[in-house]
Amino acid sequence: MNVMITGISSGIGYETAKLLAGMGHNVVGTVRRFPIRRLPGVKYVLMDMDDSQSVSDGWNTCGAFFAHQLDVLFLNAGFGLPGAVEDLTGEALRHQFQCNFFSQQQLIRSYLAMNGHDRVGRIIVNSSVLGFFPAPYRGAYCASKFALEGMLGALRAELQKTNSKVLVHSLQPGPIKTRFRQRSLKEFEDHIQPSTRYASDYEKMRGRLASRHWDRTALEAKQAALKVEKMIAATNNTVYRMNIGTQIAWFLRRILSTTLITRIAAKGNP
Ligand SMILES: NC(=O)c1ccc[n+]([C@@H]2O[C@H](COP(=O)([O-])OP(=O)(O)OC[C@H]3O[C@@H](n4cnc5c(N)ncnc54)[C@H](OP(=O)(O)O)[C@@H]3O)[C@@H](O)[C@H]2O)c1
Fold first, then answer.
1. pLDDT-based confidence at 117, cuts 50/70/90?
2. Minimal CA–CA distance to 148: which of 115, 106, 86, 193?
């Protein structure tokens, strides 16, 4: 199978590229700069999801690698920009959305234009538990992943209307042990002017993001890669909720009032 994965320099993307290439799939992965540790059998293409021209150039290069026959598009690249909603500038929010939402839609659009609806195809999107459940100081990230989930729902319905053979899956992980938190800390320092109102929670948040300690429910990136491999064999549109916390959150989201959801969310880690 021909598989394209965005963001394979580390974490879930890296482990998925490694797993699928090891199984003999033809994997093309995108990175922002060429990595030092290259995976055997994987082809690398430059793509910066902050820049729509780079996304378009990277897509064209990938197309040449798989002769415009792409079986699986795994949209994995993404990051979180933490900070209270009232501390988010428009520029910070646009920065979050450019990578986590606009570039994803750009690639989905390019994929459908290339693949058409008659050929079997598969889009897998790395979303999050924060794509359906709120958490404090994650307003920008939640907004980008909720928006992504909303768009995927609409897309699935459109594809069904046209009897398309393209399937759309979303992976909704809870905490996974990757570089995600380190990157979040850097995003916070680069983009947020902390207001004093949240000073003590921001201090706790910095400590948590800098820590090497993960809570007991955090999973390894390899486990996410195994889920992606399962999705490649799924015969229907699917949503995979990883981590026990994600499954509980999904259940609570369906049965509780906004008041109770807010109470639970407010108890979450800063
Ligand atoms: N880890 C978690 O707890 C968790 C939970 C739920 C969902 N997720 C989702 O999982 C996905 C993968 O994250 P991860 O946990 O594997 O974290 P990670 O180790 O930080 O990997 C993120 C990957 O995305 C790439 N990336 C980030 N921003 C990019 C940009 N603007 N342009 C191009 N590439 C970019 C990174 O490249 P660079 O090395 O160049 O930055 C890296 O390859 C993300 O979409 C994230 O939202 C993660």
1. very high
2. 106
